[in-house]
Amino acid sequence: xxxxxxxxxxxxxxxxxxxxxxxxxxxxxxxxxxxxxxxxxxxxxxxxxxxxxxxxxxxxxxxxxxxxxxxxxxxxxxxxxxxxxxxxxxxxxxxxxxxxxxxxxxxxxxxxxxxxxxxxxxxxxxxxxxxxxxxxxxxxxxxxxxxxxxxxxxxxxxxxxxxxxxxxxxxxxxxxxxxxxxxxxxxxxxxxxxxxxxxxxxxxxxxxxxxxxxxxxxxxxxxxxxxxxxxxxxxxxxxxxxxxxxxxxxxxxxxxxxxxxxxxxxxxxxxxxxxxxxxxxxxxxxxxxxxxxxxxxxxxxxxxxxxxxxxxxxxxxxxx
Length: 320
Ligand code: NAD
Ligand code: UDP
Fold this sequence. Notes:
The strands form four sheets. The chain has a seven-stranded parallel β-sheet, sandwiched between helices. The chain has a two-stranded parallel sheet with strand order 7-10. The protein contains ten helices and 13 strands. It has a domain at 2-176 and 211-240 and 277-284: Rossmann fold. It has helices at residues 11-22, 77-82, 84-91, 93-105, 141-161, 185-194, 214-225, 245-256, 280-286, 294-319; strands at 2-6, 26-31, 50-54, 67-70, 108-114, 164-170, 173-174, 199-202, 208-210, 212-213, 234-237, 242-244, 262-265. It binds nicotinamide-adenine-dinucleotide and uridine-5'-diphosphate. The site of uridine-5'-diphosphate has 13 residues, from helix 6 and strand 8.
């Protein structure tokens, strides 16, 4: 198949592109490098079935493709709060553009939505049928509400243009190839641990997240993407193992083999207090469930970041 991966130079997108090539597909990666990096695709750049288009998703050329994966959006609260309008456009005008392209080419379309559509959830764990509890005008609304708009756009294209489309709601995912300065909690904690600094916990650290290792996430995403019979379906993708941020800080310290303590700062506004996916739909339809545990996934992520830091030191000392 010929697959367009919008946001393919990002953390998840880079893993998706590599996996698609390994499975024998042709991949067109489109990215404006807002939060992505060419380093995420450097190993596949010269692959004969891979091509890279540096462009904004809202201006995606109408290429002939069989499958469109829309991953092009900032995902880090630090970044999207600093670039709210770009974030809203990527998920609104960007979704419009890609849905129109897919409908025009008869391609299947998958929109990467988020657990943030549930906001600060009043139901726990969150099932796909839950409509959410979102502040429409808060500091996170540029992300939450544009993802909700993107979901609506995706389904209206189904209804009005016969688009074959699914939505995946991704819960916190982590792993190698995240940017160390991304601002999300796993790179922030690992970066601090490796620098010998205390881990920065926002608020009292009792808020929870359920963290999914990237290989499990990619497996799930591609199960949905290649299932043409999943048209009109919405799936939670994530790992239901729920931890507080204090527990996560301890797990990162253990994985990094360093005990540098914790520094508390003010809670982020509208920070959801808890989050855990109900993944029954994915389990029942595909028999899928995550297989990488938190300790194992964090160890692999710590190894990645510490190798990267050592490479940087080696390059700097060669240049000196
Ligand atoms: P990321 O920031 O690493 O990747 C996003 C990619 O999209 C980057 O390469 C960025 O340059 C690109 N991009 C952003 N705006 C663009 C635009 N206007 N035009 C073209 N490219 C653009 O983040 P990620 O964690 O890999 O997230 C990928 C997708 O998954 C996003 O849509 C995100 O909302 C969704 N998601 C991720 C998580 C997670 O925990 N990682 C959770 C929920 C949803
Ligand atoms: N967080 C933290 N320290 C950081 C970054 C994040 O304590 O340096 C907390 C944040 O307040 C939230 C959780 O970790 O409760 C997850 O934040 P992240 O930005 O990774 O993703 P979110 O789920 O909020 O989109």
